[in-house]
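Quick question: what would this complex look like in 3D?
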Amino acid sequence: EQILEAAKSVTNAAGVLIKAATTAQKELV
Amino acid sequence: MPVFHTKTIESILEPVAQQISKLVILHDDADNGNLMPDLSLPVQVVQQAADNLIRVGHETCTNSDDSLLKRELPLALIRVEEACKSLQEASVTLKSDPKSPFGKRKLIEGERGILQGVSAILLSFDESEVRKIVHLCKQVIEYLFITELIEKMDDLVTYVKNLTPVLTRMTREVDAREKELTHQEHRNKLVQHLEQVKSLTPSFISSIKIYLLTLASFQQNDSQEKQVLFCIQDSKDFLIKRINYEIKEIIRILQLTSYDEDEWA
């Protein structure tokens, strides 16, 4: 189903965002 | 006890849910003074994916005739939209002040909102899919209770011809759903009840056939034959009740989620 694929894209993108934020934080902590 | 009740929902939400807890730990103290990187690009990617999800979500609503889905899905889409606004706000704030506690809080709020919104969308869609299977189950139940209309063999042939595709579809859909569930107990129960339906159906059809054959040779004055006819009728009714019970149990289990622990207590 299209909606499941679209939802997956959102959570993947949200995951990348978290990674970007947390990686930078880890480096600084 | 699994957190998500289907494998599809689990595969979509589980990775990001784990990452959010990392984010929360790191930002537990939003005033820690640490610098945040420029998040404009990843936030933009989330926004684009969310825009697509919102478009697809509205299309799904338009193409569906499920009134509950039409009511619930738009609300979940708004949650995603609101979450994106928080992320945009976080991105703008952190770009101008990489230490901003407000920006960091907005980031967490947006990420949580995305998870909750997508979760609500998936649940709403999943419930709608379950309602389709339940509808099939109810169609089979309806067929069970129209056997009184079968008066001769030709009727039985037509009856079987009409029942078979609905029953086959119901079996296929329930079978596929069972494989999708993460809750082992629910899966086992679905398999058990579906097996019962499969094994009882041939006997049910045979009982109608025997009833019709007996009825055709029935002598009004023969009390012994009358007795036999009653017994066959009883047996047929018993099978109808049994299949009806099994399908109703299937419906009940289909509507359960992992959160319905009390049901199994």
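Answer marked as accepted. Chain B touches chain A at residues 8, 11-13, 15-16, 19-20, 22-23, 26-27, 32, 34-37, 39, 42-43, 45-46, 48-50, 52-53, 56-57, 59-60, 80, 87, 107, 111, 114-115, 118, 121-122, 125 (CB under 8 Å).
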